[in-house]
Amino acid sequence: MALIQSEKLSQIAEWLDERAAIKAIWQLLVKFSIPGGARWVYVLGSGLLFTLALQFFTGILLLLYYVPSADYAHVSVSYIQKEVLFGNFIRGIHHYGSSVIVVLTVLHFLRTFFWGAYKNKRELAWIAGVILLLLILGFAFTGYLLPWDQKAYFGTGVGVSLIGAIPVLGETISQITLGGNELSTLTLSRFFVIHVTVLPVTLLIISFLHILLIRKAKPAGTFKETITVEEDYYPKQFFKDCFFTFFLFLLLATLSYVIPAPLEPQANPADANYIPRPEWYFLFLFQLLKYFQGTSVLIPAIIIPGLVSTVIFLLPFIDKKAERNPFKRPIASSIALVFFLGIISLASLAVLEDRSNPVIKAQLERQTEEGKQYLKTPFKPKNTGGAVAKPEVAPVPAVYQAKCASCHGDKAQGQFGPKLYNLSQKEKRSREDIIKLLENPQSYGLKPTMPTFADLSEKERQDLADWITSLKE
Q1: In what helix (H) or strand (E) does residue 33 lie, and over which residues does it extend?
Q2: What is the Cα 50 distance to its own chain's centre?
Q3: What is the pTM (predicted TM-score) of this model?
Q4: N or C: which end of the chain has fewer CB within 10 A?
């Protein structure tokens, strides 16, 4: 019986191989030699590839429930964590996976640099790797806003403000990024599209190119000149990679189960007490910004990262010597080590300064505790505490949709123009003021971008004024 089953399995395998060339694909994937033989240090690249694939898979599952709008983004994430079966576990893996990817990428880069693996016709593979690093940082930045909680809102606001500091084009780029003058649904939708379409497609292309270039140039192997033996990838290195990827999954699963992914209350732009702090891998830049004021903020925000990125990008063309041993390249190795330790020192200093300031420490602890308490509260299907609240008002007049919605938003929540909530309290506008303002906006000090609605009838202006004065946030 067992022999018959074995023959049937063999026949099925042969049938599939004839049509899909499975054996040839397997040979292509695993049949290549590694100079110096299998080593545990080589698992970093495979582990990074596995974690990226896991991010893609968990990201797709999260997309089944996520709503990319300022009204419902936070409540949809809350629903995922509190109500969806295994939702808390899946979001946890996705959340902690981003940190693991950063760690693996940095370690992989350091190993490649110190071992001189970017030399000997591997320049293009190195360049592709640098682009992958930038894409991973892009994922971290764009994904940060998507939960639309307090941390995401204020942290992203700080990041976008740095873009606005760029001379000449900064304000324009900032407005394009935001979709206006402030964080809104347009900002969220733009970050969402970049995070789930532009970056993933680009990452897939560059990853494939990176692996292809490495295979074309052949693995660099160890930097030791005395080792000449070569060993096939399969089976030793293959099983090392499998063991490491299993360890990574176990680590992420444990973290997701024991420490759920953080989620603070929904973003409230009116909260003047909130202290934003970036993720740990951006803390060094946050600390560096403290030492520069005014226009000099461009030095740590733009100039230093730009110069460092350029040097890293062109490294194979700067360091053309064949020598790969890090101990025989003392200057390059020392510079890299000092740079890496400097980043760690700046990040550590940022944490220490926060802890040494009693006011900041107390507020940060309060924010963390609020996030923990929020996760413990039952899920509320109605989004009630948003950055863009839904006003309970009469139906939107047709004249507003025709004349005003394109600038002020379909529900007066603000878009290119400002919000229209609470004008009687905030701007001291009476109903009569609004009626006259629609006739001659500039006489009330409004910018020329506010058009004059001379073509509206008195009844239409009155209807608009009645509706706008009824708006309450």
Answers
A1: strand 33-35
A2: 18
A3: 0.77
A4: N
230: DSSP letter: E
Residue 375, H or E segment: helix 358-376
Helix axes 73-82, 87-114, angle to 10 degrees: 100
Closest CA to 140 of 89, 194, 176: 194
Task: Say how far apart CA 185 and CA 224 lie, in whole Å.
Answer: 55
Q: Please report where in the chains the tokens 């240090």 appear, as a residue.
A: 41
Per residue in 20-55, pLDDT (tens digit) is 777 777 777 777 788 888 889 999 999 999 999 999
The alpha carbon dihedral of 220, 224, 229, 231 has a sign of negative
| Pure H helices in 21-149 | 22-30, 43-63, 73-82, 87-114, 123-144
pLDDT tens digits, 217-259: 888 888 876 556 778 888 899 999 999 999 999 999 999 999 9
| Dihedral sign computed on CA atoms, order 130, 132, 135, 136 | negative
| Amino acid making up residue 192 | F
More confident residue, 228 or 56: 56
Radius of gyration of the CA atoms of the chain, in A: 28
Name the residue type at position 217.
Answer: A
Length of the chain: 473
Token reading at 285: 């830049």
- Residue 252, Cβ density class (10 Å: 0-12 exposed, 13-18 middle, ≥19 buried): buried
- Residue 420 CA, chain-centre distance (Å), reads 32
- Residue 393: partners with Cβ closer than 8 Å, 6 or more residues away: 467, 470, 471, 472
The answer for residues whose C-beta is within 8 angstroms of residue 49's C-beta and 6 or more apart is: 207
Give me the pLDDT at residue 426, please.
Answer: 59
| CB of 80 closer than 8 Å to CB of 123 | no
Token pair listed for 33 = 């030699």
Helix (H) or strand (E) holding 231: strand 230-232
